[in-house]
Amino acid sequence: MKKLLILLLGMTLVLSGCADAMRKSADHAANAPVTAPDDRTTAAASTAPESEPATSPFTNLPLLAARNAQPKDPQNTAGRSTARREHSFGVSDGERPHEISVAAQTYFKEKGFPAIVYDDAAKEKVIYLTFDCGWENGCTADILDVLKEKKVPAAFFCTLDHIRSSPALIARMIREGHIVGNHSTTHPDFSTLSRARMAQELLTTENELRTRFGYFSPYFRFPMGAYNENALELVGELGYTAVFWSAAYEDWDTEQQRGADYAFDTVTARLHPGAILLLHSVSVDNALALGRIIDHARAQGYEFRPLTAYGS
Predict the structure, then answer these.
(1) Which residues contact 141 (CB under 8 A, 6 or more apart)?
(2) Binning pLDDT at 50, 70 and 90, where does residue 52 land?
(3) What is the pLDDT of residue 50?
(4) CATH superfamily to which 115-309 belongs
(5) pLDDT higher than 60, residue 174
(6) What whole-number distance in Å separates Cα of residue 236 and Cα of residue 115?
(7) Which residues contact 94 (CB under 8 A, 6 or more apart)?
(8) What distance in Å separates the CA atoms of residue 134 and residue 162, rounded to the nearest whole number?
(9) What's the average model confidence in pLDDT over 86-103?
(10) Where are the beta strands (DSSP E) in the chain?
(11) Is the pTM of this model over 0.85?
(12) What are the domain boundaries of the chain?
């Protein structure tokens, strides 16, 4: 009997201890943070701030989304003229734009096309310095060095091939405050293209700048200066201004370079107020003469302005 009483007493103490432990465990659970289920954890993560947009490894600018714009009236049912026109500027003389440049500027304005040949509203002696960059001939870095030293802004109209093959140079142009303009993807004659193909030519190059460099500018130059009214309208529809020129010379032929003095004499003789000056970045002569050209122009009272200041 004594052994039975001891056994019953032990069992009572054990049950009492378990109950107390269960109460303490329940109290602890009531005050503990609730572990959320998986779906709640996912929901919490989705409300966290989005990460910073990806940046260009070339410019450190936030990358821009590609633009996919479809041309209106792709079949040209409006009947816009497709007759080929080739830009001609004439050789300016006596610090006056040639009458051909004047006529071209008047034509674009009267037709309402977003295209410029020279700044006919300029009240001062201003120059807009532009370069065409179809490919790299080892001169562009030297040109950029001179522009940086002289504190001169410029616009570089680049093809897709030049952009892809020379990303460091493109990035330098952007970082140093120059305009990188669109010179098309394959450098075709735009007067021969459909509206869809023209849009593709512009947007492929634009999107290369957007998605690799985080950059875009609304300036376009027709390859070879060839266009028609249909092309001019399409360029404007896509938000671009077509930039032609009123002063230039035959500097693109790398087999016919004539020396820095020739480049200097030719360019400085053709300057005029409001001039849009076209040079080619492949010309060794241009690279060697550029500093002297800039100094001479400034000595004659000219100011170099970016295209963004056109008409101001």
Answers:
(1) 169, 172
(2) low
(3) 54
(4) Glycoside hydrolase/deacetylase (3.20.20.370)
(5) yes
(6) 8
(7) none
(8) 6
(9) 95
(10) 85-86, 115-116, 126-133, 155-158, 179-182, 219-220, 226-227, 241-243, 275-280, 303-304
(11) no
(12) 115-309
